[in-house]
Amino acid sequence: MTDNAEIFEGLTTEQTQAIIALINNKTIREASQESGIAESNIYRWLRQDNFKEALSKSRKEVMRQAVTLAQKGFTDAFKTLEDIHQDKEAPTTARVTAARAICEMGWKAYEQEEIIERIEKLEEFIEKEGRK
Description:
Distance between the termini: 29 Å
Radius of gyration: 21 Å
Oligomer: single chain
């Protein structure tokens, strides 16, 4: 997991607050209102590479945490399926449907995480090769 201090390194406290507000809100206006930071400042910062990079890393971290939660659900869903499989008398229709949905979401989240990691490795490789 990424260290928050690393993500926000080189940013001011206001910029860090703006990133958190941008992640938690649907629009820049809402983020501005929540954080008390002027929209014009947020728009200006969004043109700065270090701010955009920190925002991107923050969003990725939020998604990674969501994937972790989905993976826990994936494990629980398999446990539910195992319990149902062993209890032949239990009404299973709704439980199996929910467990199947959780399994499908967990698998999809896993696949996406793997793809993201591969893309990040490729980007790092390309960046290193470009410096040569």
